[in-house]
Each structure stands twice: as structure tokens, then as C-alpha cells.
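Hi U.,

Before I forget, here's the chain from the pilot set. I'm dumping it here mostly so it's searchable later in email.
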Amino acid sequence: MSDENKYLLEVRDLKQHFNISSGLFSSKKLKAVDGVSFAIKEGETLGLVGESGCGKTTVGRSILHLYEPTSGEVYYDGQLIKGKKAVNEMRKKVQMVFQDPYSSLDPRMTVADIIGEPLDIHKLYKTKAERDERIKELLKTVGLNTEHASRYAHEFSGGQRQRIGIARALAVNPKCIICDEPVSALDVSIQAQIINMFEELQDSLGLTYLFIAHDLLVVKHISDRIAVMYLGHIVEMGPANEIYNHPTHPYSISLLSAVPIPDPDYAKSHKRIVLEGDVPSPLNMPSGCPFRTRCPRATEQCAQELPPLKEIAPDHFCACWNL
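Structure:
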């Protein structure tokens, strides 16, 4: 494989099932992620979208082995990540920015300790002066003052806290960052600043992103490609403009019809598609295609077989029997 086609992060048939107690001596399998595959090239951003509970966050955490995957394979830079040593090595190169800047930062630690923790864990400095210098450098990188180092997380606004979380992720010089809904807990005015900072960091540091979100406008703005998830499965994947302008899967079409567009004429001419029924529980998944219980196109085949993710146009994949 040539360098331009080389994948930095590759996920193959990832499954994450949790045992949920359903009685005194019985349990059921909750299939949070059920056979997800994708690959991200170096310097690229893959947006992973879907409604709450579809398994997006679980995918990100399973890649980093914060949840030990039930099955499937994760490759980083062509190497299969298996065993504690390989996972620790990968965590130097793949970091995560968490959704909630209020709960992801320890309130008992100063900003210097929060950002310095990855440096301590991976032993990335020789002297205390070198450690302090690196913390100041990271604070400047994310647009914070070096005087902030001695303060505690509760003294900052949500946007500033998320910047601290990003500085912590950057501390080990990662090549790839998994962004788990990093702006959904922030005010809209602050969201734009954080998104712009992610883009600037990508340009200056050559970062690769898996950007998990439910806001399609944010994802379209930052992503090169988009993968749409529904109930633990990827149902459509392709270039961002292609997915946005020509969605093919009925779930993607309904998802995009709900995106507000500030143009009254466009809003009048484009009707919103409201799906029937509720999202099934991952504890009681429907047979065949997971979307069939809400799909206007569903046929008998949809109830019997899970549709494969197949290429319908160059680099555009869709999992539907009725295309």
C-alpha cells in the first residue's frame, strides 16, 4: 500500500457487547457496537454521526481499550493492537478528548497537574523544569495563559475547560485524537472557537481525527468523510459533501432532513422526514436490518438478513437492500 493510501487507524468488525442483568440469575446481551469497520488515513478527519445511544462513544472508547472489545481488531499504523504493552504504546499516539469538560477534569488537581499527568505516566521529561516548560507551551497552544497553570478546573468556563482537556490530549504528541462530542456541552458561540482550534491544530501538527458528534452541521464543517451509525451498525459512509448532498440510506436522508437551514424558501421546499415509531432497544434488537422497524422501504428480506455495507459510488458505501 502506497503512503498516500496508508491507513493510520483501522477498525475491523468491532463488537462491544455488555451483559446486563435482567433478573436474579439471568442477564441479557446489550449489543452497543455490533460489527463496525472503518479506516482513517493520516491527516484525515472521519466524522461519526448518529442519534444518542447508537454506540458512537462506545466505538471511541473501545478503540482505546477503555472498554475491552468483545471481538474485532484495531490496527494502528499497520500494527494489530493486542495485549497491554501494545495498548499502552498506542495510547502515546492516540488520545481522547471527552464530551463533558465538567466531569472529565479532576476538581482536586491544578491545571498543571491535569496537563502534566500524561507526561508523568509516559515519562516524557527529564527534569521538573522541562515538565513545567512543556505545560506552559501546551497552554499557549490551546489559547490559555501560562498563569492559569496553578488554578483549579472549577475556576474556568466550559470552553476553557475543554481547552484544558485538549492540552492534556496533546501532551504526549499524539498523531491521532478521538474527539467524543467535544463541543456538544458548550454554548454555540464557544463551539465555533473550539472547532476552529481543532482545525488549526490539525494543520499545524498534522493530526488525524475521529470526530464523534450528533450535530451534522459541525461534522460536515470539520470532516473529510462521514460515517452514519444506527443501533451499533454503520449504515452509510462516504465523502462529507457526498453524504450531505446525496444521502442514500433512508436513515441518513431523515437525519439530514432535520438539519435546520437558515433559508425560509429552502425550508418550505424541503419537507422534514419524520420517522415512524421509536428506536428499538439494543437489548431486543430486531432481526435483519436494525433500521427496518422504522424504514418506509422495508421488505421481507430486510427482516431476514442484515444488509452488507457495499460500495454504491466511488468511496461511498451504504447498507440497504432496497437501493
